[in-house]
Amino acid sequence: MRNTVLFSDITIVTPDMADSVSIMEHAYCVTSGNTIEYVGVSKEEATQVAESFGEYDVYEGKNRILCPTFVNAHAHASMSIFRNIADDLALEPWLFGEIIPREDKMIAKDFRYGHLLSLAEMIEGGTGCAANMYDGARICSEASVEAGFRCQQTALGKKFIDGVWHTDEDEVRDFVDYCKNETNGLILPSLLVHSIYLYTEDFYTPLKELGEKYKTPISVHISETRTENANCVNQYGMSPVEKLDSFGLLTDTTVAAHCVHLSDNDRTILADRGVWVAHNPSSNMKLASGFADMISMQKAGVRLCLGTDGASSNNNQDMYMEMRLASFMAKATSYDSTVLKASEVFRMATRTGYLACGFTDCGIIGKGMKADLQIVDYDCPQMWPLGNPLSALVYSCGPKCVESTMIDGKFVYYKRELTTIDMERVKAETSESMDRLK
Amino acid sequence: MRNTVLFSDITIVTPDMADSVSIMEHAYCVTSGNTIEYVGVSKEEATQVAESFGEYDVYEGKNRILCPTFVNAHAHASMSIFRNIADDLALEPWLFGEIIPREDKMIAKDFRYGHLLSLAEMIEGGTGCAANMYDGARICSEASVEAGFRCQQTALGKKFIDGVWHTDEDEVRDFVDYCKNETNGLILPSLLVHSIYLYTEDFYTPLKELGEKYKTPISVHISETRTENANCVNQYGMSPVEKLDSFGLLTDTTVAAHCVHLSDNDRTILADRGVWVAHNPSSNMKLASGFADMISMQKAGVRLCLGTDGASSNNNQDMYMEMRLASFMAKATSYDSTVLKASEVFRMATRTGYLACGFTDCGIIGKGMKADLQIVDYDCPQMWPLGNPLSALVYSCGPKCVESTMIDGKFVYYKRELTTIDMERVKAETSESMDRLK
Fold first, then answer.
1. Which of B205, B94, B336, B29 is nearest to A88 (CA)?
2. Could you tell me whether strands A402-407 and A410-414 are parallel, antiparallel, or unpaired per DSSP bridges?
3. What was the pLDDT predicted at A89?
4. Per-residue pLDDT tens for A266-300?
5. Residue B88 — pLDDT band, cuts 50, 70, 90?
6. I need a surface site. Which of A163, A348, B103, B430 has the fewest CB within 10 A?
7. Between chains, do B336 and A90 touch, taking CB under 8 Å as contact?
8. Domain end residue (candidates: B357, B378, B397)
9. ipTM value for the complex
């Protein structure tokens, strides 16, 4: 492919700067390098812009929608090697009996190829970015850069020695330097603060200071289950939100996953601090965690995005599914079919997700923004006749309809072929991982 | 394709006669005509059986799952022409403001091509049969037979003249004869009794007698919304289940859609009568009808299957989605991740659906059963590594992974190409329908 691409006579669906979603039919878009250079309805202007960059490719837009790639705002990508091995179990036997014993035996290649497998799945489903919370920051990020995939990636930032957690400043400093100097802006670092229940009380302040020193966002699980809340109240006399806030861990760069069981006060704190909440409807339903109250969070002014959680608790990584389910869950639990409309969940899955991950120039199809785009083929029974293109994307579409995915100006999936990931190798290695970690 | 097919070295996942699901790896299956002639793990035996029918084709099973086609036990297929035109609305403005005014203007070709469009979508998603509740019995059934698709299809059985409903015995008799004599067993008739709220009280007994005379099952919506229940109690002093039962309309051939709001007594009646309940998780969530209590129905002994409802209230017709959502909904509402396991929703979507529709020799991969089969390609990031094949089908798979669909021994979808439906014509006609009916 050439460096410049002209998307011709295509339907553009994009979040706009006015907090809504714009639909433009018979539109044109030009990307050059990693930047969107033209968006509009003039073929002539689009052609002039494209020609100004030299030779260019044309992507024919008949029966196609061009929209931003999705952001999977809560992923554990390497966990795809634990897919479909332990289902229909209660949380504890699943986590402590099946998942953690396997994680304890993971070696470097398990992180790498599990991660690449998830990237392949996400890319095929129109996702171009993830907030990835997992150990193996460097090895996973190198895989992301190879695949041309954008991530906010956690540094672990700690070591478990003789039963005690210690901060690992070297790892954080090295990873922050690596992200800045060697990833072409594809990877932004954050710091993993797993949850309020995994560490002893005295460890949260050192973690917070480490994050502050290296200016990393915090990535954290909050109030996923009723048990977590009950234990926290029992131990600290506060909710997980309140207790984490007491350490100063909740800021306008914190990404908080789940947030299923919140009080009014919790929601006020999350809104006041500007925390980004990553809602995970599939995972919360499958693990019987409950229904996050998106409507109350929305009313309280909490900033909302969407994630899949790991492939071992979902069991796929399909952001179309999560948009659909987020809307469905809000409608069904409130007995109101007008809430969490298509426009709202579409923004959560795109623009808001990018802002949550710190990629402020992604998630809107507009001049000067990054060229992170997906092309949806609606020439298929599942999406025909198109009707409202935004409704079609949220309520009818799925990975089957995604034809191409461009990240940072490069097609990583072109006309249904992955261009950057060697799937035969990934398949062989992940099969071996699953077998070995039994 | 030849008349005989040998599926070679494939993973078979099938409901069995013992009320569970069997998984057979490195298995073989031979179909000849519309019948399964061999199932087992012996290549030699399979080959002998295949050869006994003369020349045969081989379907290579590497990285493939063979399982029964799904039954969409509650469909309004022609409504695909109203897809994505009216979303995020309350039920009344949606139904009375957007859908019914369009339905009133439908002409014959709208029924035909809308129906074919839905069949194409279902076939591509591994569905081989539907309980289709809609007007246009004959025209829809002719389309089904052309497409090689199995249906339990409602006869309307009534006419609306001068504001009054009258039974239409001629239509029912003719349609029953047609099904028996001209559809090669693909179409079974039922009688449309829309709901307890659409007709005056005196019309239910004539409808019931008409169904009895022609031995047709009854197809009915029950307790979809709280409003329906409240109105019924207000008018009759009984719930919809109780009132329909008082007319004798609930029997062991009745297919009752939705059943979202039931009392203990309602569930006891449904179980005692042997009614088949078609659960529609996506539609019930999207229209904010609520959560059907599948666990209580299961405990009461109600027979459960799954449906998508129409494409205008879902907005796709993906039985993988419905299996997944049925399980998720039951888990989340009960705070118990061990309920409605993969095996249970898989049986609901396959064997139980066929029994509900009256196709008693479908839905199990076993010798002598009908050859209604789908082939799933798990050589893709979304389903890799496979893990438990049943979990993978229910929790990871989707229409993207369906490679082929065979109905009544004939490939209607072969290696991702529809073989019986002229999609260019269907697309043109349904686009015209959507535009005209605006």
1. B336
2. antiparallel
3. 92
4. 999 999 999 999 999 999 999 999 999 999 999 99
5. very high
6. A163
7. yes
8. B357
9. 0.97
**pLDDT cut 70: percent of chain A above it:** 100
Chain B segment 106-145 residues within 8 A of A by beta carbon are: 117-118, 120-121, 124-125
> What confidence tier does B92 reach under pLDDT thresholds 50, 70, 90?
confident
Interface of B with A in 390-429 (CB under 8 A): 391-392, 395-396, 398-400, 423, 426-427
Secondary structure element (H or E) that encloses residue B30, with its range: strand B21-32
Same-domain status, A131 and A268: yes
For residue B316, what is the nearest residue in chain A, using CA coordinates?
A396
Torsion of CA A208, A209, A212, A214, to 10 degrees: -110
Question: Within a domain: residue A432?
Answer: no
Element (H, E) at B332: helix B319-334
The count of other CB atoms within 10 Å of the CB of residue B183 is: 18
Phi and psi, residue B299, nearest 5°:
-65, -35
- pLDDT tens track for A372-405: 999 999 999 999 999 999 999 999 999 999 999 9
Residues of chain A contacting residue B331, judged by C-beta atoms under 8 Å apart: 285-288
> CB contacts < 8 Å between A and B, how many?
203
Place of tokens 């460097």: A138
CATH number, domain of B272, equals: 3.20.20.140
Give me the residue from A88, A125, A285 closest to B332, CB to CB.
Answer: A285
- The structural domain count of chain B equals 2
CB of A58 less than 8 A from some CB of B: no
Are residues A103 and A181 both part of a single domain? yes
Residue in B124, B288, B396 nearest the CB of A336: B288
Q: Which residues of A touch B341 (CB under 8 A)?
A: 87-88
Whether A107 is covered by a domain: the verdict is yes
State whether A231 and A380 are in the same domain: no
Final residue in a domain of this structure, among A307, A333, A357: A357
Q: Which residue of B has its CA nearest to A327?
A: B286
Residue A254, domain member (yes or no): yes
Does residue B95 sit at the A interface (CB-CB below 8 Å)?
no
Do residue B60 and residue B94 come from a single domain?
no
**Shortest Cα–Cα distance, B205 to chain A (Å):** 34
- Residues contacting residue A185 through CB under 8 Å, at least 6 positions apart: A408
Residue A292 and residue A329 in one domain: yes
Window B:204-233, CB contacts with A under 8 Å: 226
Cβ count near A147 (within 10 Å): 24
| CATH code: domain of residue A385 | 2.30.40.10
Residues B333 and B368 in one domain: no
B282 CB within 8 Å of a chain A CB: yes
Whether B162 is covered by a domain: the verdict is yes
* Structural domain that includes position B366: 4-68+361-418
Query: CB neighbours of B308 closer than 8 A, spacing ≥ 6?
Result: B72, B74, B75, B280, B282, B283, B314, B316, B317, B318, B319, B321, B322
Any idea which residue has 């932004």 for tokens? Answer: A188
Same domain, B172 and B318: yes
